[in-house]
Amino acid sequence: MQAPEADSESLTARPQTAERARDATRRFLAAVAPASMPEVDAVLLVVSELVTNALRHAGEVTRFRLEARPGTVTVSVDDPSRAAPCALPRDVERPGGFGWHLVRSLSAEVQVRVRPGGKTVSAVLPLPQ
Question: Is 98 helix (H, G, I), strand (E, B) or coil?
C-alpha cells in the first residue's frame, strides 16, 4: 500500500480476476465507508467492469488502484493496451456490450489516459462518508 495523501486512503494491487478485485474493494470500502450503501454496489460494479475489460481486451491488469477522498472514491485500472474503450451500440439481442455504458452512467467522471506501454482508465464515483 502506498502512503496516503492528506484526507485520502489508497490501495494499489494487481488482481488477476474481477472477483479478486471486488474482494479487495469490499475490504477497502469497509475501512472507509458505511457497509450497506447503494454507492458501494456501484463501486463494485465499476471495478468489475473495468477489470473484466482489461483482462478481456488487453490480457491483464498491470495495476489496480482505489483512492478514497472525502465524498468520492476513484477506481483506476492500468493495462498494456493503448486502445481506448469504446461504447458499442446498444443491442438487447446481443449479449454483452453494456459495461462501458454502465461505467459512464454510474461515475461522476471517467478518464482514459493513453501512455507508453498501455493506458489507465479511471472512474470517480460518489461515496458519502
Answer: coil
